[in-house]
């Protein structure tokens, strides 16, 4: 099998998984004929898809694919093989499932770290009542007024877009459209449509926090998911790497993309993002304590692993939903409503392992970016994440 044929077979295989679970294909911008072939074919059998993935992995060595492309396709076929086995009903341990999907080994976080995070958060939110009560009161006071949400989204999108364009080249025709939706297991989602265009959906079921909104826009658009898709379409896809036209759920792509996106605001604005956001809110007539928000964000960042712990409790230790919700309320200081919203995400057959992309992606990519000594170094490293087909094991 030559390289072009193998890439075609990889694309057809990935597209076929959308017939098993709609939404498995997050984005596809390649040859529409390949999508038509999968849509018009008989419904696939999961075990057959798993076998096909294994066969294609074995065939990679006989192609003339360059090493980086071969490694990229190989780990994605490993992920698809695992997905096929899961769809077929095979019992795969949760830790092994996460490794096959995302190319990382996971383990529980440290409750000592969580206690230290609580101590630091307690310093930021000093006052009467316990920490969970003070955090709930703070969040209630930090909600973006519903009638100003669109104005705030537009303002941050414009400000971040200007910064990204000054640092990294973007196609002149690129654009992001925002819409508000409900009944989703996530707070925001980027739908990349190709031709440098994205729709970013924001979940109306969750009140949007003033402190979180800049992160959300950076994550989904500039310099996060939208920017990465545009840069890879203009670079890798234009250079013939057609495997980059397909973006699949539960693959190493996701861990790299979510880690990049979660580091997006830190990378493009850096320390002082709180005061930067405060000025934008002030221009909109809204009060926001940016310094306090940044201190709280840094402290609560040590709670990153709590949600992955919750997934391990649910799927590895088979604890009840009530137990897992209680864990989230205790360590993440989540309200009962937020804990149940998190459980909705963790319980989704398609998304149950996905939390590890945020936890492990942030740790892995954050550590890699921290190798940059200067601002220019970090910018160049972040640019590599935007432009290259990197995988977790390559960064390690």
Write a structural description:
With 396 residues, the chain is mainly alpha-helical. The chain has two domains: 90 residues, no CATH class; 283 residues, no CATH class. It is 61% helix and 7% strand. The strands form two sheets. Strands 2-4-3 form a three-stranded mixed beta sheet, with helices on one face. The protein has a two-stranded antiparallel sheet with strand order 1-5. A hairpin with a 2-residue loop joins strand 3 and strand 4. Helix 1 runs parallel beside helix 4, helix 4 runs antiparallel to helix 5 and helix 16 crosses helix 17. The mean pLDDT is 95.
Q: Per the principal axes of the C-alpha atoms, what is the gross shape? A: globular
Structural class: mainly alpha
Q: In angstroms, what is the radius of gyration? A: 21 Å
Helical region count? 20
- Tell me the β content: 5-15%
Look at the structure and give the mean pLDDT.
95
End-to-end gap:
31 Å
Question: What are the secondary-structure elements, in order, as H or E?
Answer: HEHHHHHHHEEEHHEHHHHHHHHHH
Are there runs of 5+ residues with pLDDT below 50, and where? none
Sheet bearing the most strands, described?
3 strands, mixed
Tell how many strands the DSSP assignment holds. Answer: 5
Q: How many separate structural domains? A: 2
Estimated helix fraction = 55-70%
Q: How do the strands of the widest beta sheet line up side by side? A: 2-4-3
């Amino acid at each position: 099998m030559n390289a072009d044929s193998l890439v075609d077979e990889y694309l057809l295989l990935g597209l076929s998984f959308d017939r098993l679970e709609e939404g498995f294909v997050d984005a596809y911008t390649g040859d529409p004929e390949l999508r038509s072939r999968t849509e018009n074919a008989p419904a696939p059998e999961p075990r057959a898809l798993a076998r096909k993935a294994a066969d294609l992995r074995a065939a990679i060595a006989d192609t003339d694919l360059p090493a980086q492309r071969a490694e990229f396709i190989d780990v994605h076929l490993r992920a698809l093989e695992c997905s096929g086995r899961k769809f077929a009903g095979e019992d795969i341990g949760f830790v092994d499932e996460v490794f096959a999907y995302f190319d990382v080994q996971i383990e529980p976080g440290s409750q000592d770290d969580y206690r230290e995070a609580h101590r630091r958060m307690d310093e930021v939110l000093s006052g009467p009542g316990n920490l969970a009560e003070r955090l709930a009161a703070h969040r209630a006071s930090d909600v973006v007024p519903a009638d100003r949400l669109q104005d705030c989204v537009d303002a941050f999108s414009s400000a971040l877009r200007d910064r990204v364009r000054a640092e990294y080249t973007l196609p002149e025709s690129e654009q992001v459209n925002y819409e508000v939706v409900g009944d989703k297991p996530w707070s925001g989602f980027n739908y990349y449509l190709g031709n440098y265009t994205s729709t970013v959906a924001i979940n109306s079921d969750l009140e949007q926090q003033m402190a979180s909104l800049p992160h959300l826009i950076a994550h989904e658009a500039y310099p996060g998911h939208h920017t990465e898709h545009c840069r890879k379409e203009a670079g890798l896809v234009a250079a013939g790497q057609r495997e980059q036209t397909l973006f699949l759920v539960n693959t190493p792509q996701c861990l790299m993309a979510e880690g990049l996106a979660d580091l997006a605001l830190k990378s493009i604005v850096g320390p002082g993002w709180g005061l930067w956001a405060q000025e934008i809110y002030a221009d909109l007539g809204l009060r926001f304590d940016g310094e306090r928000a940044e201190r709280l964000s840094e402290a609560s960042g040590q709670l990153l692993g709590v949600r992955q712990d919750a997934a391990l409790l649910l799927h590895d230790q088979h604890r009840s939903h009530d137990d897992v919700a209680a864990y989230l309320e205790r360590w993440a200081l989540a309200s009962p409503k937020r804990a149940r919203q998190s459980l909705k995400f963790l319980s989704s057959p398609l998304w149950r392992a996905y939390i590890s992309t945020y936890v492990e992606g942030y740790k892995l990519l954050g550590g890699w970016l921290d190798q940059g000594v200067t601002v220019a170094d970090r910018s160049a490293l972040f640019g590599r994440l935007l432009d290259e087909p990197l995988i977790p094991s390559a960064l390690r």
